[in-house]
Amino acid sequence: MELTRRQTLGSIGALAAAASMPDTIAYAAKRKKAKTRALGVQLYMLNKELDKDFQGTLNQVAAIGYREVELASFHNRTGAELRKAFDTAGLACTSAHIPMGALFPGMPSLADPAAIIETMRALGARQVVVPSFSPPQRFIEKLDMPALMSDIRKLGAAIWEIGLAMTAQDWKDFARSLNEMGSVIAKAGLRIGFHNHNVELAPMAAGSTGLEILIRETDPALVSFQLDVGWAASASVDTAAFLTRHADRINQLHLKDTAERSPPGSLDGFRSADLGTGIVDWPALMRAIGKAKIEHVYVEQEEPFKEPPLDALRIAFGFLSKQPTLMRG
Questions:
Q1: Which helix (H) or strand (E) covers residue 72, if one does?
Q2: The whole model's pTM is what?
Q3: DSSP, residue by residue, 125-157
Q4: In order of start, what are the domains of the chain with their CATH numbers?
């Protein structure tokens, strides 16, 4: 059930006083003293493995050398249960992808911010990242949602088509919703972010892109951005130049490579490549990272995988471990 604005603010007010999140602060201080940057994994690419053996998969992630994770799902676990599993593996959860609204019944979303705040506090994580834009209602009304809900790929494709049809005003309206939610969860010590795919980087008639509008229209004090390097590169974006241009707004990265460019808005056109073997200009990107204020980086790949996901993570860790700028942090 969606909370009213009054109920939301009341629930958050009760939680805010207890939301200092000392575990996250202690972890950040520890990492600041370290000589190397803690590399992270977006757990989305390990969903199948986690479903089979949750703790064992986390243990393998840590054994490779990763120290941080970002959630894309709560895996039907409470915040306390997730935290115990991460602690057992020696991992810190520093971020979570949470949509603005639930696509499926029971799906965690920012429609219930008080519940999200409680879970994030249990995790010791401060970053709430919105993984996709919210389609305007006039588009949603035309979709056959019952049919699409049974096929996540078709649902994604339909939403991406909407993204290509959105106007500059639609993106400004979504920016306003990010500001509003950012203000709400900031009272509990959290920060909202937005994660791009390639559709937000499609050129618009006005000469801008949806992502540029979001960056321009959101409040820097409330909203940050998580640049997905692979999706940006697939949309023919110079990722190093983009990061340099928006270094004051981008605080997290998804590190992935892509074998080729794909039309913005195409879900099926993305072809993952092992880091360093695709079209991303890694030397230039590493230089840009060294000059930016990046707090966390997460390795991720998109299906279909060239090799088992854990093997891909091993390859990625080996590649990133040889990047002095990245590892210095």
A1: none
A2: 0.88
A3: --EEEE-SPPPPHHHHTTS-HHHHTT-HHHHHH
A4: 45-307 (3.20.20.150)
